[in-house]
């Protein structure tokens, strides 16, 4: 294995266009000495993997705080249980949307900067990998014609649209509850302060504003299909103790299917957003 060195940390790119493995021990990560290099690498590579680092909750929180401002969950907790077990996570139903490509925070003007996910329990029978795609790279590789065509497009995003992916015939009460969360109009192309551009797509996108429904669906599906081609995708096969973090502003992600009764448990912390959609 050939390792490169970023700052003082040895790293290895996992694919050409997305994801880098970082080799460091807990003390080095928790010291904060490498925070700048990690942030720079995250923006450049989209996904960082810290294999079997084995953080406790307190260590994961401390590491997150070396990188920026920790964003608490809705109930104020610092750490969120990513599990389909409703005995552990009362809002586990919302996680059903995580099986479809998405980015987090499309209901907010400033979406979270990054998520950090660590694995605690994995399905004994396999499944439950997590996939990521690099939406900066996907934008960059579009033809100039495509870039021109989508430059000024805007799409409506909502939680109720992702509901329809996993529950295509919801009862009316459930639909109304999801609709109460609201919806938001966002650009299809996000022009970042850095000047780089990424795509805002995924299962929260219902339609392109002002476009005929069939044409709008074709456009959204074609772009999602483009952005999730193998050259833009990294698939993480979890080992217990891995920590994976991703730049939520330049990637989409999804969980691959697993047995809901498998006990799969990942723990998530989030970094507060620093840049509004634009
Ligand atoms: C998520 O969408 O944040 C969860 C991903 C996973 O469960 O693998």
TrEMBL record:
A molecular-function term among this protein's GO annotations: dioxygenase activity
Keyword terms, alphabetized: Dioxygenase, Iron, Metal-binding, Oxidoreductase
Keyword hit for Oxidoreductase: yes
Cofactor: Fe(2+)
Record Pfam families: TauD
Residue ranges of every copy of the TauD/TfdA-like domain listed in the record: 11-269
Record InterPro entries: TauD-like_sf (IPR042098), TauD/TfdA-like (IPR003819), TfdA_dioxygenase (IPR051178)
Cited SUPFAM superfamilies: Clavaminate synthase-like
Entry keyword Iron: yes
UniProt record similarity statement: Belongs to the TfdA dioxygenase family.
Protein name: Taurine catabolism dioxygenase
């Amino acid at each position: 294995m050939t390792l490169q060195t970023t700052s003082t940390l040895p790293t290895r790119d996992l694919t050409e266009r997305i994801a880098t493995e970082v080799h460091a021990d807990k003390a080095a990560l928790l010291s904060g000495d490498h925070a700048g290099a990690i942030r720079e690498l995250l923006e450049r590579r989209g996904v960082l993997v810290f294999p079997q680092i084995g953080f406790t909750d307190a260590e994961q929180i401390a590491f997150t705080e070396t990188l920026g401002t920790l964003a608490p969950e809705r109930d104020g907790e610092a750490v969120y249980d990513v599990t389909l077990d409703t005995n552990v996570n009362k809002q586990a139903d919302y996680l059903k949307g995580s099986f479809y490509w998405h980015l987090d925070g499309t209901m907010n003007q400033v979406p979270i900067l990054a998520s950090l996910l660590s694995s605690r329990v994995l399905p004994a029978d396999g499944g439950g990998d997590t996939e990521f795609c690099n939406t900066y790279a996907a934008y960059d590789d579009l033809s100039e014609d495509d870039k021109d065509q989508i430059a000024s497009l805007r799409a409506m995003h909502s939680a109720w649209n992702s509901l329809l992916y996993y529950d295509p015939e919801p009862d009316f009460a459930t639909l109304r509850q999801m609709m109460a969360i609201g919806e938001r109009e966002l650009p299809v192309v996000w022009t970042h302060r850095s000047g780089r551009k990424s795509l805002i797509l995924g299962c929260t996108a219902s339609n392109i504003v002002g476009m005929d429904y069939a044409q709008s669906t074709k456009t959204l599906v074609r772009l999602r299909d483009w952005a999730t081609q193998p050259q833009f995708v990294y698939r993480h096969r979890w080992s217990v103790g891995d920590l994976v973090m991703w730049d939520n502003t330049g990637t989409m992600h999804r969980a691959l299917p697993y047995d809901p009764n498998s006990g799969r448990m990942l723990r998530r912390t989030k970094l507060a957003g620093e840049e509004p959609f634009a």
